[in-house]
Amino acid sequence: xxxxxxxxxxxxxxxxxxxxxxxxxxxxxxxxxxxxxxxxxxxxxxxxxxxxxxxxxxxxxxxxxxxxxxxxxxxxxxxxxxxxxxxxxxxxxxxxxxxxxxxxxxxxxxxxxxxxxxxxxxxxxxxxxxxxxxxxxxxxxxxxxxxxxxxxxxxxxxxxxxxxxxxxxxxxxxxxxxxxxxxxxxxxxxxxxxxxxxxxxxxxxxxxxxxxxxxxxxxxxxxxxxxxxxxxxxxxxxxxxxxxxxxxxxxxxxxxxxxxxxxxxxxxxxxxxxxxxxxxxxxxxxxxxxxxxxxxxxxxxxxxxxxxxxxxxxxxxxxxxxxxxxxxxxxxxxxxxxxxxxxxxxxxxxxxxxxxxxxxxxxxxxxxxxxxxxxxxxx
Length: 379
Hints:
Elements: H1 7-34, H2 39-47, H3 66-79, H4 81-101, H5 104-115, E1 121-124, E2 140-144, E3 147-158, E4 165-171, E5 180-186, E6 192-197, E7 208-219, E8 223-224, H6 230-264, E9 268-269, E10 272-273, H7 278-306, H8 312-337, H9 347-358, H10 365-373
């Protein structure tokens, strides 16, 4: 087993780290304060080809694999977690699924502009009574000749206020309980509008808004996959997305460790730096160890996905461990900073706010435990 990154992964890591340090991190505080979509960061990531990772060049991509996405997401999240969330939505939840499940016509039409960052994507699954419970979706799509009539409201949709293309799951009533079907909806389609924008606790520069469909006529050619296959498509999208979320959390945890270690090495109390106190230094050592363990879980899930091997359990393990670690780490980081850590001009409060949602979206920690435990009792 080789734990060393390949040269192209190292090159990508260095490029993304440079972007994160020079462009993303300096803007992170102000973007968080304004709670505006990070368009400049979006354009910078697009210019580096990050939205085309896993997409072949002939479809506008820059090539790469799942491990490349994990590496990029971690480095970006260390600087600006909101931007890492945008990467996850644009690539893992919208562009890559159209490439994987779309027909050739759909690939040629939708994938290149999204992979190049010319159009923004979104993934509309969550409803008022259906989030992790995908089977509870109430949105409907009724066939009407060469169109479908879509009705329903999706909530909390990341990048939902800026998206040009959105993947939507709805039920085809004629198919009964097995009617879940995926659709590609373009901005400007009659009957589709964007609803309220949310005031969020964290990830504030990856803005969220409702998606509202009222007798929205969607061309049948925009159906993604076959009727009734939407559940399989959306579950696989979530499996890939969970690797990205785990990498986001990993980056947040690493940023906490970096900043906490620096602060503990400079902050003096009772005549010496607080880092010389074992109550601090030992917990930093534990955090460094847990971050390495989380990184290995993330890399393993990406490794399996890249080889076409089953990875659902491993993706859930990576997301569960990394996201809960990010939350624990950020709370500890606030404690290291003391009173300053509780002030809004401290980096720790942003890490803590950003970390929390990673335990929630794309399947809560409780859902990840359901996925993992379901594999333990099979013969």
